[in-house]
Structures are given as structure tokens and as C-alpha cells.
Amino acid sequence: MKTSGRLTRRKAVIRALVGLVVVLAVLLCAYLIPVPSVARLRDWADSFGPGFVWIFFIGYAIIAIFPVPRSAFTVASGVLFGPLVGFIGAMLATTFAAIMAFVLVRRYGRRIARPYLRHPAARAVELRMEHRGWLAVGSLRLIAAFPFSVTNYVAALSSIKFVPYAVATVIGVMPGTAAIVILGNALAGEGSVGALALSASLFSLGVIGLILDARLGVPSAADDVETVDDEAANSDEPTDELSPRAT
């Protein structure tokens, strides 16, 4: 079982490293290859006036509450509004979405979240929260492999307190958000070697987070089956529910 766990973690690290190589290749192409059509998108956005910025980020914030990948919106933030406005807007939208998802799921419970907790990553997220509490939120935010919405929903169903969750979310999503916004700005033809190097460095934090996560002693879902079965046998609650044991 331990050998299988090591192999799984090794594969996860390899996939993360491959992903980093792909990101670096995209960054290099963004710097070397001009993309005038993307630059025209920024001109198109500017033609709507300052109100378009608010409309875009309000839409981003609302859509990100649901299980929709937010990366496309984050890239668009850099493409359309540049690194400063794009980063601030993306962070505000992401934080709002994470908080609203947490509040809604915690208030209305499994009725909202049940369809999305069948995601394969859901149990992995829950295991980390059970063993590390709110620290797991921050580490999972660094790792792109864990879906943003699933982390929100599982955290809401755990006993993690709101303030630590919100703080860990802001700190955890900051590097990746900055990296993607800088990449989006580069796609608009305004990237510099320094900015692209910063973006690559921020992306690497996700890989470092994944490596550290793999080295920490969190059991796999397979190792946890016996514990879950024992709990189910001694509980009247449905066995498909996540346990609120995180602290």
C-alpha cells in the first residue's frame, strides 16, 4: 500500500513538472510571437469605457461561485485590463466567489453541493482538511490540480472557521492569480523578460506546493476506506456524506 502511495505521488509530481514545462513554453511563445488580435481585444474592451471593467469582474465573481474553471477569466483579466487592474480585479472576484460558495454551501448544505462532491478530487480534498485543517486550504489553493470550486464546497461542509478559510484562500490564490494575469498581459503583446520570469516563478510555487503536499503524511483515499466503513457502520447518516471533522 505504501509503495502504491509513493507511485501515485511520484506520478502527480511528474505531471506537475510537465505542466510547468508547458507553461514555460507558452510564456516563451507569448514573448517571442506577437499576437495583434489579442491586443485588439484590449482596444475593443477599452471602447466600452470604464463600466466594462465592473461588468466583467462582477460576472467573473458570480460565475466562479459555480463549478466553472476560473483560469479563462483570469487570463482574460490580464489580456483586457493589464497586470495591475487585472490582478486586483481577479483577486477581488476570486475572493468573493470563494466566500459566497462557502457561505451558501454551509447554510444550505449538501443539497447544493452533492452533485459536485462526486468529483474524484473531493475525497482527496477532504482528507487533507481532516488532517491539516485550514492550512490545507492555503496549500490546495497553490495547486492547480485541485478544482477551486470543489475546495470551496468541501471546506464549507467541514468545521473550518470562516476567517481562517478566507485568509488562507487569499494567500493561497495570490501567486497563481498573479502568474496567470501576467501571462494574459504577455499574450496582449506587453510582456517583458522580467515579467515572464516572475510569472514562471509564481507558477513554480504551485509545483513546490504539490511536492510538499506529496511529502506530508496524508493517507490516500484507498488507505482511508477501512476508517470510513467503520464510521458508516456506527452512524445513522448516509455513507456518501463528507464528515465535518476538520478543525
Q: What general outline do the C-alpha atoms trace? A: globular
Counted beta strands? 0
Percent in strands: under 5%
Q: Whole-number average pLDDT?
A: 74
What structural category arises from helix and sheet content? Answer: mainly alpha
How is the quaternary structure best described?
single chain
Helix content: over 70%
Query: What are the secondary-structure elements, in order, as H or E?
Result: HHHHHHHHHHH
Distance between the termini: 27 Å
Largest sheet, strands/sense/barrel:
none
Give Rg in angstroms: 19 Å
Q: How many helix segments?
A: 11
Low-confidence segments, given as residue ranges, are: 224-247
Describe this structure in words.
By secondary structure, the chain is mainly α. Helix content is 77%, strand content 0%. It is built from 11 helices and no strands. It has helices at 2-32, 36-46, 51-63, 71-108, 110-113, 120-132, 134-142, 148-157, 162-190, 193-215, 225-233. α1 (2-32) packs antiparallel against α10 (193-215), α4 packs antiparallel against α9 and α6 crosses α7. It is globular and about 45 Å long. Mean pLDDT is 74; it is low at 224-247.
